[in-house]
Amino acid sequence: MDIATVVGILSGLVLLGTALGRSGGLRAFWDAPSLMITVGGTIAATFINYPLDQILSIFTVVKHVFLRKLPPPEDVIAQLVYFTEKARREGILALEEEAEALDDEFIKKGLQLVVDGSDPELVRNILETELAFVEERHKSSQGLFITMGTLAPAFGMLGTIIGLIAMLRSLDDPRSIGPAMALALITTFYGSLIANLICIPIAGKLRIRSGEEVLLKELVIEGVLSLQAGENPRLVEEKLKAFLPPKARDTLAVKRQALGSMRQRGIGP
Questions:
Q1: Other CB atoms within 10 A of residue 266 CB
Q2: Domain check: are 97 and 210 in the same one?
Q3: 175-184, long-range: CB within 8 Å, 24+ apart, which pairs?
Q4: Does 269 map to a domain?
Q5: For residues 49 and 162, what is the distance between their CA atoms, to the nearest angstrom?
Q6: Which of 30, 150, 154, 268 has its CA 20 to 30 A from that of 117?
Q7: Residue 209 contacts residue 68 (beta carbons within 8 Å)
Q8: CA 194 to chain centre
């Protein structure tokens, strides 16, 4: 569970609800026609802009925002260095069983290509092609929420225009001016709320998650190619440390020792 996302959304809703409650009560900010214009219009325009299968994938994307957690890069480095050491001691073919036991499909594919004796350039091309498609899928998911964040204020403004038209057409009836003005202003409020509290922040979180995953996969590509080239494990570790921030580098040696002892006892991947 991503605590920051949950805290951000809940704190935003609580603070906003408290402020609205002290500004005349929450009932004053509820208007069904305004909600239909803003939310309904945003959803309809999104369906026009994107294919159905991509829109339906939004539930999986949101689940990744709240639940998905990538392994720390230092753990991946420790794992790759361990594989490099084992390959130097026992040969590349000794990694076949290790690859089958892995949960990470990207590392598994890289190791299997190496075990099968594929050309290093082919290994790089295959892994980089898969990485490129992962980035493209991530950009598409981000674009979906960015589009919704752009459309919501636009439909809020459309609702404002509708409310103003209704108000101007009934200036001779003072009782209709209030509801028309409410429709005019609340739609803008709904559009800004949807865009700035939900859609744009989720797109930003997806961008950060995408960057983290791409970094991990680039790290894996370099580690697998170094393993295939038979490089010294210490040099491989130093090369892969370039992907880490300074604080994470300090803990890498400790994690490598822990991983090695776990493997000796038959625990872990």
A1: 6
A2: yes
A3: 182/31, 182/34, 183/31, 183/33, 183/34, 183/159, 184/159, 184/160
A4: no
A5: 23
A6: 268
A7: yes
A8: 19
Token pair of 83 as six digits: 């594989």
Least confident of 15-19, 40-44, 78-82, 182-186: 182-186
Residues 6+ apart with CB under 8 A from 55: 46, 47, 144
How far is Cα 3 from Cα 187, in angstroms, rounded to an integer? 30
10 is in which domain, residue-wise?
1-30
CB neighbourhood size of 76 (10 A): 22
Q: Are residues 105 and 9 in the same domain?
A: no
Mean pLDDT of 88-105: 86
Residues 7 and 72 in one domain: no
Question: HSE on the CB side for 168, CA within 13 Å?
Answer: 7
Question: pTM to 2 decimals?
Answer: 0.78
Give the whole-angstrom CA distance, residue 117 versus residue 111: 10
